[in-house]
């Protein structure tokens, strides 16, 4: 990492690794170096494209692309360092009213993102979605983390998805696809926590708007369905649409999501033990 920092005139003495994530990411003063496996080079190229495409287009800051290159075949990006910290560092200690306010702010941001014109963005959805739907019915069957009582739910995934239909016959928009508590950034200002940025667009793509919402239920709201309702209302979904039918559809999106995992959804609604996926939709999304 020191070689990359020196190559771009960065202060090598300030290099500090970030914990977690699937990439090698180091801070270097007010810059970030993100290095990834050559087999995933397409993701860094996609992220660079999305960061340039979205710069200044939403109320939340996104990292600015400074430069990009390779080190012994390993691709990397040099980005600006976002202000603030991951929302997940604040969330557990926030009172309910603050979480609800932030849920509305997240909904407003998603509306801004989905409002960006996608007409000149790469279109990869058809093949991507076909692969997701083929994997979804069998992905959780062999998950060793899934408790025995939940095995029937994994076996139900295929019939549940079939009952919900194709899902993606709707408006296609600019998607982040991984709106997690570690990708949304916040900071304290005037005594309260405010959203200030969003990062990691490596899996950004153009696709149906509803694909962006299930990760919020898993990683941010974690079974607080009223917060998802607040988010969706701020996004612009009419209250009449916020019903059990939408909850089932969002669960179908979540089960089909590239990074969706039944085990994580069940953890979000613990200690409840849903007997069917229909019950899980109620517990996780709370739109009845």
From TrEMBL:
CDD domains: APH_ChoK_like. GO terms for molecular function: transferase activity. Keywords: Transferase. Residues 15-238 form the Aminoglycoside phosphotransferase domain. It comes from the Bacteria. InterPro entries: AGP_Transferase, Aminoglycoside_PTrfase, Hygromycin-B_Kinase, Kinase-like_dom_sf. PANTHER family: AMINOGLYCOSIDE PHOSPHOTRANSFERASE DOMAIN-CONTAINING PROTEIN (PTHR21310:SF15), AMINOGLYCOSIDE PHOSPHOTRANSFERASE-RELATED-RELATED (PTHR21310). This is Phosphotransferase enzyme family protein.
